[in-house]
Amino acid sequence: MSPDRTSPAALSKAEFRKVGHYLVDTISDLMDRFGEGPVTTGETANQLQAILGTASLPETGVAADVIMKRAVSLLFNHSLFNGHPKFLGYITSSPAPIGALADLLCAAVNPNVGANILSPMATEIEKQTIRWLAEFIGVSPAYGGILVSGGNMANFTAFLAARTAKAPKSIKEEGISTNHAPLAVYCSKATHAWIEKAAFFFGVGANGIRWIEQDDAGKMRIDMLEQTITRDLQNGSAPIMVIGNAGDVSTGVIDDLKSIGALCKTYNLWFHIDGAYGVPAAVIPKLKNVFAGIEDADSIALDPHKWLYSPLEAGCTLVKDPQTLINTYSTHPVYYNFNSSESQHNYYEYGFQNSRGFRALKVWAALQHIGREGYIQMIGKDIELSQLFFQLATRHPELEAITQNLSITTLRYVPTDMPGDAERKEAYLNTLNEDLLNSLQRKGDVFLSNAVIKGKYCLRGCIVNFRTSEKDIEEIINIIVKEGRKIQMESVNVL
Fold this sequence. Notes:
Layout: H1 13-33, H2 45-52, H3 64-77, H4 97-109, H5 120-137, E1 144-148, H6 151-166, H7 171-174, E2 183-188, H8 194-201, E3 209-212, H9 222-234, E4 238-245, H10 257-267, E5 270-274, E6 299-302, H11 304-307, E7 315-319, H12 323-329, H13 360-395, E8 399-405, E9 408-413, H14 425-443, E10 449-453, E11 456-462, H15 470-494
Parallel strand pairs: 2-3, 2-4, 4-5, 5-6
Antiparallel strand pairs: 1-7, 6-7, 8-9, 9-11, 10-11
Helix pairs in contact: 1-3, 4-13, 5-13, 6-12, 13-15, 14-15
């Protein structure tokens, strides 16, 4: 900083080092202690507000070491830890420590990865990260793409590129209107809720979604998909894209991607794969056939903060033809002086954001630190633990194992003695398991989420956690049964 200017925001070299060393030391201790305490404290919003306090904005500055010590206390003592070995809840992985260090480095340099001139090296690192992610899942490194915040944005980015590529070209100037045939998109009934948002946001509308039935294995029925496409063509609708799931969020099922890709070629439709959770498992050699067809996709969504163990936020959109993103998102206002060279890669032309943080560095660093073989080991272990979870539930007389795919197991607690007649059984079990889940989440010994499968309310464990072990899975089974018995006894006493 210039010697003739002082600033309230500045820290001296000594002060920055002191606070930084304290922070790194305390984070190191936290990482070493994961598993000793609860996953979460289960405190209510009112309790947390009371702890945080209601003080007004300070008029004068507070010392950096005081702020950081309080922040550490607040976050370490009152958070949900997805790095905890018994966190099997929503699909947020335990973050690789190198990612946390990479985020600190990003914040220090603070590149704006919207334009090459504002982020020369960061842009090149993001380009390399995109190539590595494509290679990782087994598609051509010629795929282009962009790092985004997460699954919603990764899928939105691809959805709008598909609409630009397959809908009437006049839409870009004239907008969606009744002068065009109604657009139609096709997906399994298990597709994540992002598709409903995208249809609403981008002019297709909820009525433009064709929800295709699933077969007994949970995969989209290819026969129903083709019947629906041909019926729409006969009735004057305009099919534009099909979405295949590569690991649906409830059960981890992978659709028949090869058959979906073939249909898309036959009917000239955009083939998008939502692999936000599951597609990194394509790196496992024995699962190669399960993911057959991903190379036919026009676009793929994947989230490094799910199964590549990156800290939040890190999503990614990959596209077979990078020009489709430029056709969709590129604008050239007069105040942009960003195209002095044809070889410059400006990420504002590839997605929704102009100003963009440097998300790629933590992914780039982890990909190198762990390596392909390391990921094969870690992802494979997560799958093995999920299979163990399913097997233990199958063997237990008070548990019913429902599904197991990739690293997701669903199950439910089924007491040996239930009140009521057979007709009331399912309703009773649904209520019981919902109450059980709420109690487990509140107490924090384990954190699971839920899925509803063929009308059954299930507990759902998704393992994307490099700290989880066989011992944790065995203990989780015991925790579920113990708490299930307690909830069931309370419900019986109420009746």
